[in-house]
Amino acid sequence: MSYDDVEAELRRHPKVRECVVTTIHTGSRNTLVAYVVTSGQTDPAEIRAFLSSSGLRSNRIPQAVIPVDSLPRTGSGEVDRAGLPLPVRPGQAVGGKRPLSDFGGGAPGVVMLVLAVVVAVVAFLMTDVFWPGSTDLSVVPQPWAGLFTGLYVAECLSFGLGIGFLFAGRGRLTRLGRPPWLTALAHLSVVWLLIAWWPQDNLYRLTAKTDWGRQAALVYGFNVTLMIAAAVLVAFAVRENRAGRPADR
Question: In this structure, is residue 141 part of a structural domain?
Answer without folding.
Answer: yes
